[in-house]
Task: inverse folding
């Protein structure tokens, strides 16, 4: 599969899912190039970020934060970079994640679920306090998520 993803003639976004599902986690440089060359191709932008955030490296923190700060970034890409920061356990991104979580909450608590998951991966008192605010959510699924994340806190 890695040979296929490196060959533009055979490369498809479906292959990205196969790489992730099969835990092929050594293709960051390939997806870094794909992301840089994706231009206005949203499918490839999404797929490359999905891969990079599934197997994040420390050097991607600033890229992930830049994308997350940009309100015009695609929502699914913002979700992915939030999880990437969570997987990196980047304590320096907690304030940004809380800010984005609160912004998306204005429309619906449902929009904040991924950010809550990212905060739970990072841990810390600030993250915990933010998640606790969702225990009183009007959305049952969000309330349940917050409760589950807090139960698994330790």
Result:
């Amino acid at each position: 599969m890695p040979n296929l993803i490196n060959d533009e003639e055979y490369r498809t976004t479906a292959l990205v899912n196969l790489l992730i599902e099969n835990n092929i986690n050594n293709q960051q440089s390939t997806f870094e190039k794909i992301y840089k060359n994706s231009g206005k191709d949203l499918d490839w932008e999404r797929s490359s970020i999905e891969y990079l955030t599934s197997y994040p490296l420390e050097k991607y923190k600033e890229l992930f934060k830049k994308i997350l700060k940009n309100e015009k970034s695609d929502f699914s890409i913002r979700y992915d970079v939030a999880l990437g920061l969570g997987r990196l356990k980047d304590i320096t991104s907690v304030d940004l994640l809380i800010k984005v979580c609160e912004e998306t909450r204005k429309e619906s608590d449902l929009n904040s679920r991924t950010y809550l998951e990212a905060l739970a991966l990072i841990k810390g008192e600030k993250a915990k306090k933010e998640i606790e605010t969702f225990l009183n959510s009007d959305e049952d699924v969000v309330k349940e998520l917050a409760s589950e994340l807090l139960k698994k806190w330790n």
Residues 131 and 146 are 6 Å apart (CA to CA). The chain has ten helices and no strands.
